[in-house]
Amino acid sequence: MYDLILFISTIILKPQLQQPNNFNIIRLAAAAFVIFSHSFGFYGRRDPVYIFSNGKIPGGQFAVYVFFLLSGYLITSSWLKKEEIFPYLNKRVRRIFPALIVTVLISIFVVGPAFSNLPFLNYFSSSETYSYLWNISLWKMKLTLPGVFAYDGVEHTVNPPIWTLFFEFLMYIIIILFGLLKMFDRQKKSIYILWTFVLASLVLVLIKISPELFIFKIGVANFVRFFLFFFAGAIFFIYCKERKIPMIFPIVFFAMMCVLRNTDLFFVPAFIFIIAIVFRIAFHEQRYGQRIVSYGDFSYGTYLYGYIIQNIVFQIIGEKLNPWSLFIISLLLTVPLAILSWNIVEKKFLDKSSTAIKIINK
User: Is 116 helix (H, G, I), strand (E, B) or coil?
Assistant: First the structure.
C-alpha cells in the first residue's frame, strides 16, 4: 500500500524549478488564512485580525488584499511583457475559469445532493439548483443551493469566497484599458493618472463608502478597496521591481496601526504595512516553503475548496470542534484537493495556454 501511494505521489507531484521569489508561498498562506478567518464565523466569533483592527479589516479581507496586491504586481508584469490583448486574456481565462468550473460542478452535483435536506429528486428539479451555474460567468453570483448546509432553519452559503473572482477578473480588464492608455510607462505623464486613481481610492476608503452602494450592479466599496491594492501592486512593479523592502518599514507602520487602531485613519498605515510586509517577504533572499511550492501553485485550489470543506466538516462534527480545530481539520482536507486541482485541471490548462500562444506567434 505504501509503495502504491509513493508511486502515485511521484507521478502527481513532480518538482519544478526553484521559485525565483516567495510569491507562491505567500499566496498559499493567504488562502490558508482565509480558511482560518472563516473558521471563527462558523461559531459566531470574530477572528484575531478583526479584533485587533476593531472590525476595520476582517482576517479574510486581509488575506484577499494580499491576493490582490500580488496579483496587481504579477498581472502588470504579464501585460508589459508583450502588451497583446489576446495572449494576455488567454492566460487570464485559463488561470481563472477551468478550476472554477470544476468547483461549481462539484458543488452542484456532488456536494449539493449529499448535504441538501431536500429529497434527491426535489433538489435536482429545483431551478435554484441550476441557477448556481451562473457562478461560472462571475456575474450575478449565487452563493446558496436548495437545502444545502441548512442548520438552525437557514440555508447557508456554499462557497462565498468565489465572489471576489468577479473583481479579480475585472482588474484584468482594467489592466488592458490602462495599458492601452500607456499608464504603466513611468517615463510618460500618463503614469500620474494611475497615481491619481490609486490615491483617490485610498481617500474613498477613508470616507467609508456604504457597502450597499452599487453602480452597474458592482459593489462600489469592494471595488475601490480591491482596486487600491491591485494597482498598488502594479505601481510597486513599475517603480520597485524585485526590490526587497527594509524591515524598518513594516515595523514602523505596524506600530502606527497599533496607535491608530481606534481611529478612522487606521486603514492608511494598515495599507502601507500590508504592502511593506508582503514585498519584504516576497523578495527575501531566503526561499520559504520551497519544498511545498516546488510541486506547484496550490493557492487557488485552496481558496476555491476551503470553505466547502469547512461547511462539510462543520455539518458533520461541528458541535465537537472549535474555530482552531475546525481550521486545522479543514486545511488538512483542503490541501489534497488543491493538489489534485493543480495537477489535474489548472496546470494542464496553463500548459495549453503556453502552447496556444506559441502557435499564434509563429
Answer: strand
* pTM for the predicted model, two decimal places: 0.90
Q: How far apart are CA 58 and CA 328, in angstroms?
A: 19
Q: Compute the chain's Rg from CA coordinates.
A: 21
Is the distance from CB of 64 to CB of 227 less than 8 angstroms?
no
pLDDT tens per residue, range 202-232 = 999 998 876 666 666 678 889 999 999 999 9
3-class secondary-structure state, position 143: coil
CA dihedral 117, 335, 89, 230 (to 10 degrees): 100
Residue 255: HSE in the Cβ half-sphere, 13 Å Cα cutoff = 5
Q: Produce one character per residue of 18-37: b if its CB has 16 or more CB atoms within 10 Å, e if not.
A: ebebbbbbbbbbbbbbbbbb
pLDDT over 80 (residue 185): yes
The number of C-alpha atoms within 13 Å of 61 and in the hemisphere containing its C-beta is: 18
- Neighbouring CB atoms inside 10 A of 238's CB total 18
CA dist 32 and 213 (Å) reads 30
Q: For the chain, report the end-to-end CA distance as a whole number of angstroms.
A: 48
- Alpha-carbon distance of 199 to 192, in angstroms, equals 10
Helix (H) or strand (E) holding 107: none
Buried-state track 100-122, b at ≥16 Cβ within 10 A, e below 16: bebbbebbbeebbbebbebeeee
Secondary structure letter of residue 84 according to DSSP = -
Residues 99-113 have a mean pLDDT of 97
H-run or E-run covering 154: strand 154-155
Task: Say which residues have a Cβ less than 8 Å from residue 343's Cβ, sequence separation at least 6.
Answer: 12, 13, 296
Q: Residue 319 pLDDT > 50, yes or no?
A: yes
Residue 145's region, left for phi above 0, alpha for psi from -120 to 50, else beta, is: beta
Residue among 28, 47, 30 at smallest CA distance from 324: 47
